[in-house]
Amino acid sequence: MNKSAISISIFIIGLILLLLLICIFGILYFYWGNSKAIQDSLSTTGSIFGAIATLGAAGIAAYLFNDWREEHDHNFKSNILLEYLNRLDILEEISNRYLSSLKYHSKVYSSQYKTMFSSGTHLEVFIELIEYHHESFYESGFNTWTNANKFSLLDNSEFKEVYQNIIRNLNMSFDLRYSINNLLRDNKFEDISENKIQNEIDLAIQEIIKALEQIKSIQKNAILEIKSIKKHL
């Protein structure tokens, strides 16, 4: 319950009590000496203020309920955004590891050793490395979380759109293993031009960089949104 709700509740209760006291003193002042009139007036006043108090209590209860519901919604949104930030942190970590691996192996295969990259990594190992990073991504359930309607209570649809774009970019970067396999399907590794291999790796790197840039941008927006929500609690 916020301070505003407490203040309004106290104000309404105080106002009812003040009016009741004014009426009682007014009755005593105007009907002093006439016990019958005082008794009837106080009885009538009591009935009226009983009804007013009942209505006031109902109004306060409704206001407090709405205030509680609003506070609950704010907390729920804040929790979703905190989970969102946690997901972004994991995505950022996975993306950076994957990016570092690709950059390390992005040099074209050695002209001296026709079956491996200049980093000394065989092609099969390179593809397994991509599979490893993809498995880390897949096991974290990012695609499932995207479709879990976690964004239903968020006012800003940008969070969902950017998150989906990040997932899309990373999925496209993992398609590198298919691209290389397609190149190998009809060619021997040593017969594939250096540029083709390098271009496929560069495309994957670009997709990861796009994802990382979006992660940084939306992280700031999510933090600002959480701060804004906290101000209303």
| Integer average pLDDT | 75
User: Topology as H/E string?
Assistant: HHHHHHH
Describe the main β-sheet briefly. Answer: none
Classify the helix fraction into a percent range.
over 70%
**Number of helical stretches of at least 4 residues:** 7
Strand elements, count: 0
* DSSP strand content: under 5%
Globally, the shape reads rod-shaped
Transmembrane segments: 6-32, 44-65
Keywords: Membrane, Transmembrane, Transmembrane helix
Organism: Acinetobacter oleivorans (strain JCM 16667 / KCTC 23045 / DR1)
Protein name: DUF4760 domain-containing protein
Short description:
This protein is an all-alpha fold and 233 residues long. Keywords: Membrane, Transmembrane, Transmembrane helix.
Can you offer a commentary on this structure?
Keywords: Membrane, Transmembrane, Transmembrane helix. It comes from Acinetobacter oleivorans (strain JCM 16667 / KCTC 23045 / DR1). The structure is a single chain. Mean pLDDT is 75; it is low at 109-113. It is rod-shaped and about 120 Å long. It starts with a helix and ends with a helix. It has 2 domains: 3-70; 72-231, no CATH class. Helix content is 79%, strand content 0%. With 233 residues, it is mainly α. Helix 1 (3-30) packs antiparallel against helix 2 (35-104), helix 2 packs antiparallel against helix 7 (194-231) and helix 6 (176-185) runs antiparallel to helix 7 (194-231). 14% of the residues are buried. It has helices at residues 3-30, 35-104, 123-139, 142-146, 158-174, 176-185, 194-231. The protein contains 7 helices and no strands.
